[in-house]
Write a structure and sequence with these properties.
Layout (H helix, E strand, L loop, with lengths): L16 H15 L6 E3 L5 E3 L7 E9 L3 E7 L4 E9 L12 E3 L2 E7 L2 E6 L5 E8 L13 E6 L6 E2 L2 E2 L2 E3 L6 E4 L2
Length: 180
């Protein structure tokens, strides 16, 4: 087993992020693994990088379904031809809410970006809603909405047998709003 230099520290001694990172690297090399890619920043906060948090990538919106978006890859200049399925944000999906009553409100999804909300307590009140702003695909000189998504390992969503590994970060703040 190779020897490693571990500086001796006493209780109360300062511990610097650089020392913790070097110690982590030494332990990982002894174990023969890459380790969890743990780093410590200058404020002492532990962060994870790499596969644990996933990577963020930009896509161009093409179409949508009940729980997913279909997008093309995009490098900031050129739209790719590869279609990638991306999960909609949880609150914008059909599956968790369709035909369910939550806090006296019944949700009926009527389209990929539309729903009806009905309240029956104190008299029936119905409201038509849509996702605002809507997801827009390419038209004329407009390339389509840019969707920023993060790659994750545990969404537990499939679409036509395809495991969905991307989640829309909803940086445009889409939400359900009254359809006028």
């Amino acid at each position: 087993m190779p020897a490693i230099d571990i500086p001796h520290k006493r209780p109360g001694d300062d511990l610097f992020a650089r020392e913790v990172n070097e110690f982590t690297q030494n332990i990982n090399s002894l174990l023969g693994t890459k380790g969890p890619n743990t780093i410590v920043d200058s404020s002492g906060v532990h962060q994870r990088r790499g596969r644990q948090l996933g990577r963020i990538q930009a896509f161009i919106f093409v179409s949508d379904g009940d729980d997913i978006l279909e997008c093309h890859t995009w490098d900031g200049v050129t739209e790719g031809s590869t279609t990638v399925k991306i999960a909609k944000p949880y609150l914008l999906r059909k599956t968790p809410f369709h035909d369910k009553t939550i806090d006296g409100l019944t949700f009926t999804i009527t389209g990929s970006q539309r729903r009806t909300v009905t309240r029956t307590a104190g008299g029936t009140l119905t409201e038509q809603q849509r996702i605002i702003p809507v997801y827009r695909d390419a038209v004329d000189d407009y390339i389509g909405d840019i969707v920023y998504a993060i790659e994750v390992d545990n969404l537990n969503i499939t679409d036509d047998g395809t495991v969905i590994r991307w989640l829309d970060l909803n940086v445009d703040g889409r939400q359900w709003g009254r359809n006028r």
